[in-house]
Amino acid sequence: MLRAVLIAVAIALAAIGPVPADTVVANGTIRVHAVLGPADITLAPEAVPGALTDPAEAIGMEARINLYPGRPIHPGDLRAPAVIDRNEIVTMRFDHGGLRIITDGRALDRAASGERVRVLNLSSRMTVTAVAAGPGLVIVGPAR
Asked: Is 3.90.1210.10 the CATH classification of the domain at 20-79?
Protein backbone atom coordinates (compact mmCIF):
# COMPACT_ATOMS: atom_id res chain seq x y z
CA MET A 1 0.00 0.00 0.00
CA LEU A 2 2.74 2.45 0.95
CA ARG A 3 4.64 1.61 -2.21
CA ALA A 4 1.55 2.34 -4.34
CA VAL A 5 1.15 5.73 -2.64
CA LEU A 6 4.81 6.61 -3.23
CA ILE A 7 4.53 5.63 -6.89
CA ALA A 8 1.41 7.78 -7.26
CA VAL A 9 3.19 10.76 -5.68
CA ALA A 10 6.20 10.30 -7.97
CA ILE A 11 3.95 10.18 -11.05
CA ALA A 12 2.12 13.33 -9.91
CA LEU A 13 5.40 15.20 -9.36
CA ALA A 14 6.70 14.11 -12.76
CA ALA A 15 3.53 15.44 -14.40
CA ILE A 16 3.97 18.82 -12.71
CA GLY A 17 7.53 19.13 -14.00
CA PRO A 18 10.54 20.68 -12.35
CA VAL A 19 9.94 23.27 -9.68
CA PRO A 20 11.14 26.65 -10.99
CA ALA A 21 14.02 28.15 -9.03
CA ASP A 22 15.13 31.73 -8.81
CA THR A 23 18.68 32.76 -9.67
CA VAL A 24 20.71 35.47 -7.94
CA VAL A 25 21.80 38.15 -10.46
CA ALA A 26 23.61 41.48 -10.16
CA ASN A 27 21.47 44.65 -10.17
CA GLY A 28 24.26 46.75 -11.65
CA THR A 29 27.95 46.52 -12.39
CA ILE A 30 29.82 45.28 -9.33
CA ARG A 31 33.57 45.86 -9.46
CA VAL A 32 36.14 43.33 -8.29
CA HIS A 33 36.82 43.48 -4.49
CA ALA A 34 33.45 45.17 -3.78
CA VAL A 35 31.44 43.69 -0.90
CA LEU A 36 27.89 42.83 -1.97
CA GLY A 37 24.92 44.30 -0.12
CA PRO A 38 21.18 43.66 -0.47
CA ALA A 39 20.81 46.48 -3.02
CA ASP A 40 23.48 44.94 -5.30
CA ILE A 41 21.58 41.75 -6.13
CA THR A 42 18.12 40.59 -7.12
CA LEU A 43 16.38 37.32 -7.98
CA ALA A 44 15.64 36.43 -11.59
CA PRO A 45 12.76 33.97 -12.20
CA GLU A 46 14.82 31.45 -14.15
CA ALA A 47 16.94 28.48 -13.15
CA VAL A 48 20.60 28.65 -14.18
CA PRO A 49 22.60 25.51 -13.38
CA GLY A 50 25.40 26.18 -10.91
CA ALA A 51 24.26 29.72 -10.06
CA LEU A 52 23.34 30.89 -6.56
CA THR A 53 19.67 30.61 -5.63
CA ASP A 54 19.74 32.14 -2.14
CA PRO A 55 20.60 35.85 -1.74
CA ALA A 56 22.01 35.13 1.74
CA GLU A 57 24.87 33.23 0.08
CA ALA A 58 25.95 36.42 -1.75
CA ILE A 59 25.29 39.24 0.73
CA GLY A 60 28.44 40.16 2.63
CA MET A 61 30.73 38.34 0.19
CA GLU A 62 33.38 40.05 -1.96
CA ALA A 63 33.35 39.95 -5.76
CA ARG A 64 36.30 37.95 -7.09
CA ILE A 65 35.61 39.22 -10.64
CA ASN A 66 33.57 42.04 -12.17
CA LEU A 67 29.85 41.17 -12.09
CA TYR A 68 27.53 42.63 -14.70
CA PRO A 69 23.82 43.54 -14.55
CA GLY A 70 21.39 40.67 -15.12
CA ARG A 71 24.10 38.00 -15.22
CA PRO A 72 23.84 35.05 -12.81
CA ILE A 73 26.25 34.95 -9.90
CA HIS A 74 28.09 31.66 -9.36
CA PRO A 75 29.82 30.58 -6.11
CA GLY A 76 33.25 30.90 -7.77
CA ASP A 77 32.54 34.59 -8.50
CA LEU A 78 32.59 35.40 -4.77
CA ARG A 79 34.92 35.01 -1.82
CA ALA A 80 35.03 35.99 1.84
CA PRO A 81 35.87 39.68 2.25
CA ALA A 82 39.57 40.46 2.56
CA VAL A 83 40.90 41.62 5.92
CA ILE A 84 44.42 42.18 4.53
CA ASP A 85 45.04 44.31 1.44
CA ARG A 86 48.05 44.17 -0.85
CA ASN A 87 50.87 46.54 0.26
CA GLU A 88 49.21 47.06 3.65
CA ILE A 89 51.51 47.36 6.64
CA VAL A 90 50.53 44.53 8.98
CA THR A 91 51.50 43.27 12.40
CA MET A 92 53.30 39.93 12.16
CA ARG A 93 52.93 37.75 15.25
CA PHE A 94 54.84 34.56 16.02
CA ASP A 95 53.65 32.46 18.98
CA HIS A 96 55.34 29.22 20.01
CA GLY A 97 55.45 27.85 23.53
CA GLY A 98 55.86 30.85 25.78
CA LEU A 99 57.64 32.92 23.13
CA ARG A 100 55.86 35.75 21.32
CA ILE A 101 57.59 37.91 18.69
CA ILE A 102 55.82 40.87 17.10
CA THR A 103 57.14 42.94 14.19
CA ASP A 104 55.87 44.87 11.17
CA GLY A 105 55.55 43.54 7.65
CA ARG A 106 54.13 44.46 4.26
CA ALA A 107 51.43 42.22 2.79
CA LEU A 108 52.28 41.09 -0.74
CA ASP A 109 48.74 39.76 -1.47
CA ARG A 110 45.13 40.20 -0.39
CA ALA A 111 43.68 37.67 2.04
CA ALA A 112 40.49 36.87 3.89
CA SER A 113 40.56 35.73 7.49
CA GLY A 114 42.13 32.26 7.67
CA GLU A 115 43.79 32.46 4.24
CA ARG A 116 47.51 32.25 3.63
CA VAL A 117 49.29 35.44 2.60
CA ARG A 118 52.89 36.28 1.70
CA VAL A 119 54.37 39.00 3.90
CA LEU A 120 57.67 40.88 3.62
CA ASN A 121 59.28 41.24 7.07
CA LEU A 122 60.32 44.92 7.14
CA SER A 123 63.16 44.26 9.62
CA SER A 124 64.89 41.34 7.89
CA ARG A 125 63.58 41.89 4.31
CA MET A 126 62.66 38.17 4.22
CA THR A 127 59.39 37.00 2.68
CA VAL A 128 57.37 34.60 4.83
CA THR A 129 54.01 32.90 4.50
CA ALA A 130 51.52 33.77 7.22
CA VAL A 131 47.82 33.31 7.95
CA ALA A 132 45.52 36.34 8.03
CA ALA A 133 43.98 36.51 11.49
CA GLY A 134 42.08 39.78 11.31
CA PRO A 135 42.36 43.33 10.04
CA GLY A 136 46.05 44.22 9.97
CA LEU A 137 47.19 41.04 11.79
CA VAL A 138 48.92 37.95 10.42
CA ILE A 139 50.15 34.89 12.31
CA VAL A 140 53.53 33.41 11.43
CA GLY A 141 54.76 30.07 12.67
CA PRO A 142 53.95 26.39 12.92
CA ALA A 143 50.51 25.20 11.89
CA ARG A 144 48.23 24.43 14.81
From this structure: yes
